[in-house]
Amino acid sequence: MASIHNVTEFIFLGLSPNQKVQKVCFVIFLLLYIAIVLGNFLIVFIVMTSRSLGSPMYFFLSYLSFVEICYASTTTPKLILGLLAERKAISLWGCMSQVFFIHFFAGTEIFLLSVMAYDRYVAIFKPLSYTTIMNRQACAFLVGIAWVGAFVHSLSQILLIFRLPFCGPNVIDHYFCDVFPLLNLACSDTFLIGLLIIANGGTLSVISFIILLASYVAILLHVRTQTPEGRLKALSTCGSHITVVTLFFAPCIFIYLRPSTTLPVDKMVAVFYTVITPLLNPVIYSLRNAEVKKAMKMLWIRTIKVEER
Questions:
Q1: Element containing residue 154 per DSSP (H, E)
Q2: Sequence-distant (≥ 6) Cβ neighbours of residue 261 within 8 angstroms
């Protein structure tokens, strides 16, 4: 354990060494982060205050939006501040904390997306028993399982990394701490640990992605026999979910289901799943969902009436 503390901090190279590019990126990512927080918070607020959005699907959606805010907040603020700093440093403990929370909130999102797919499956295949199966206790239990599963996943990742000796270079060619960039800095053989990380992170992503796609394919095949109105509603809801699932899982699988190497494109891919996906989720769910748009409209009307008084 003493060898680990030979390195007390890590230095990020960031997105670009060009000062002008960094200033432009500062403005862009600051605006994106504000949009992430406001957009996802708006969904949480609307679901909590709107009576028309009391179904389990929107209950899970509000938790997903909350997780997106937390997920983006583990990396984006540090990225934004680093774009104006000459020396982009993070302490050893800060780095380990970042790794833990990145995988904790990413794991929570994976499990929540699986729960949302199960919710849609029950709603379409067992509509008469839906309210009985997906009652408040069941929904709370499923959300709890998502948090616990993510904690176990993240804890296993951090335990694998924290035991590594960091006694040499401390420069990370990235804008946040993650498992594979840290493996490259360890002064010991990391082959076995790299395989365990792939088994834990990459396999979880692939299996979850396959199960999610299979469930939505089954749903889409089933709704062919429904009325045009019911089929359209199911296609709209499932379409939103499939879009979110693909946007999140595709970059994760690219990063975590390969040998422990880093590529120049990794930083751009990481921007996609740490910034772009949390930004697009509220847009996708609000623009493709008539009930959410209606609730937003009602909130806007109530706000205007209050201001007029």
A1: helix 136-162
A2: 180, 184
Structure tokens at 47: 């679901």
List the beta bridge partners of residue 10.
90
Q: Residue 12 belongs to what H/E stretch?
A: strand 9-12
The Cα 64–Cα 150 span in angstroms is 13
**How far is it, in rounded angstroms, from Cα 188 to Cα 149?**
30
Give dist(CA 42, CA 74) in Å, integer. Answer: 20
Tokens found for residue 267: 């930083």
CA end-to-end span of the chain: 64
Is pLDDT of 250 > 90? Answer: no
Q: How far apart are CA 61 and CA 279, in angstroms?
A: 14
pLDDT, tens only, 119-173 = 988 988 888 899 899 999 999 999 999 999 999 999 999 998 888 888 878 899 8
Strands 89-91, 9-12: pairing is: antiparallel
Helix (H, G, I), strand (E, B) or coil at 167: coil
The SS3 assignment for 188 reads: coil
5: how many CB neighbours lie within 10 A of its CB? Answer: 11
- Residue 180 has which token pair? 């594979």
Specify whether the backbone of 85 is left (phi greater than 0), alpha (psi in -120 to 50) or beta: beta
Query: What confidence tier does 11 reach under pLDDT thresholds 50, 70, 90?
Result: very high
Specify the pTM.
Answer: 0.89
pLDDT, the chain, mean: 85
What is the predicted pLDDT for the residue at 255? 84
Tokens standing for residue 92: 């050893």
Q: Which two tokens stand for residue 51?
A: 């009576």
User: How far is the CA of 119 from the CAs of 15, 196, 305, in angstroms?
Assistant: 39, 31, 36
